[in-house]
Model the fold of this input.
Amino acid sequence: MFLKIYFFIFGSARLCIKGFGCSRLLGMLIHNNIYIWNIKPVHGGIELSAGIGDTEEIKRMALKAGCRSETVKQEGLVFFLKRLSAKYFFVLGAIFFAVFLMGATRFIWLIEVRGNFSVPTGDILEFCRENNLTYGTPKSSLDTNILERDMKNRFDELTFVSVTVKGTRALISVSEKLPEGAPSPRIFPADVVSSYDALVTSVTVRSGRPLVNKGMSVAKGDILISSEVEVKAEQEVVGTKIVRAEGEVYGRVRESYTFKVPYRESVKIYSKNKSNEYEIEIFNKKFRINSNKGDTNRQNCDKIESKNQLRLYNDIYLPFIITKTEYLPYTVSYRSLDPNEARQKAQRIVSARIINTYPADSEIEGRELVFSETEDGLDVRADITSVRQIGIQTDLRKDITKDGETEDRG
Done:
């Protein structure tokens, strides 16, 4: 009885031992006064129970007897409490997280502003702070109707304001008035005129009267699609009306520009001794963590900053923001270029200009570079031939009346 209570409190193990030396092992256990019980034969061996403190010794003897051993299960109060404590802390953590989540989702942890151009985002956010909408504002205390009304009264440039709260995010969508004197794109007529000297390659008209065809040469400022269209009755022209001309006109354009590639250039040489700086923001409290790998002169560093706010899904943002700032130290060195290297650099400059300035729907048909060497560098003239959209809408100073007639706007 005493042994049962002892092994229940301190634990026991059920071992499975297989091999031809099981009988020898049992003799070794008895010889060494190791208490075992509940011995049962299994396929290829035996199973037995032993105190948890004797398990390793039994496995050592089984190996010496030429047997394989493994622990089938562990029993006893000590293992029961261990399993219970693991489950207890898991359940406790799950309950704590659920309570925290329920509380955190009652507040606003992200504010976004969309649609503003002339009104700075900072001014809108400052107005929101003055009117009880800021990081950590309880959603129950926010009246979006009053905020929308007061924001329109505060900013004369805004014609529309919408404040919507979804999850823990507040989205402020605004629309602004057109600049003074700017024509409305759906009220005033317009011609489509050429923005380049070009050879027309295609014409697509949605409204208006085309004045050019494929193969025609046009100059910058020429009208491509006219806003004046004919009004016919029984195939006879009885008058004209003014519309807003719309369409796409593509043309072959040849552009030239010049630049200089110096024979001496500066080069940044980055050091491996970079450093990271982390800032953790929890409930609007900021904690800065430095992880430097040596002394870094941050006056000669490139800085890369990334900010991530923890969110569960879609619009459920949590009050945890991690900002990582990476500092890349460098020294400035100078090197000389020979004419061949300068030509290669010029090619790269032209390629970068094409990628950065030409529209995605344009087609580059050719480019030609003319070089002229000087004492201090390479003078370059680049001629680029492309097929691109050349038509732009130019508004007329006339209003369209209901009858399609026009009135001069002065």
